[in-house]
Amino acid sequence: MRTLPWLGTALLLAAPALQQRSAIEPARRPAFEAALDPLERLRLGNQRFQHGQAAHFNQERDRRLDLARAQHPFALVVGCADSRVPPEIVFDQGLGDLFVVRCAGEALDDLALASIEYAVQELEVRTIVVLGHERCAAVQMALAGGELPGHLRYLGRAIGPHVEEARARLASGSGPIAPELLEAAVVQNVRGVVAEIESSEPLLAELRQRGELRVVGARYDLESGAVEWLPARR
Predict the structure, then answer these.
(1) Is the distance from CB of 30 to CB of 92 less than 8 angstroms?
(2) Strand, helix or coil at 21?
(3) Which residues of the chain are modeled with pLDDT < 70?
């Protein structure tokens, strides 16, 4: 779905005025935004967040009461558990807007996939974003290798194949972890999780093959607050 180019600018210009409204009269999301493509809604929200103009839509009491009856999130975000990357804040969304599944390093297991399938099957979510971030400690831990203690070994096993692919592409040995290797591993881990979701049998893979499910990778910059959208794999 193509979006009129002035919509993003209009929302950014309106944000300061929306922020000045009192808590008694909360900001209301512009009606036309609901008709936008889900990725465009996320892009606009991230732009507001980056520029310090978050509108905090859908956080008022009436919204909470409406959601007590039913939820209709417009997108699902699979993200890292890192405390600096909460999807609802990064994308400036409110109650009921996003269905979120988080684990360190965006790692997937059967329970995470079941949560994704629930959102897709029961809530009819059709857009999934896998959101990684720079300097991810879970990815760095997997790159470091070695035997991990306790349940961390499961995290290493989940992320390990993705980061080793990044290492092989850069022809990097097992020495100190260079910043470029960590960055490549973060991106490759996102791509690997996207592929895992797309190929998950039977539900997600079938919907993907029919063109009814979109899975997109993204990377978050901790300092700028910007979300970079990764090109679709070929």
Answers:
(1) no
(2) coil
(3) 1-28, 172-176, 233-234
Q: Please state the pTM of the whole predicted model.
A: 0.85
Give the sign of the dihedral formed by CA 220, CA 87, CA 12, CA 21: negative
Per-residue pLDDT tens digits for 70-99: 999 999 999 999 999 999 999 999 999 999
What integer pLDDT is reported at residue 35 of this predicted model? 87
Closest CA to 11 of 37, 35, 32: 32
d(CA 98, CA 116): 12
Here the tokens at position 11 are 């929302």
Write the burial class of residue 25 (CB in 10 Å: 0-12 exposed, 13-18 middle, 19+ buried). Answer: exposed
Produce one character per residue of 166-180: b if its CB has 16 or more CB atoms within 10 Å, e if not. bbeeeebeeeebeee
- Which fold, 69-229? Beta-carbonic Anhydrase; Chain A (3.40.1050)
E strand spans, 69-137? 75-79, 98-102, 127-133
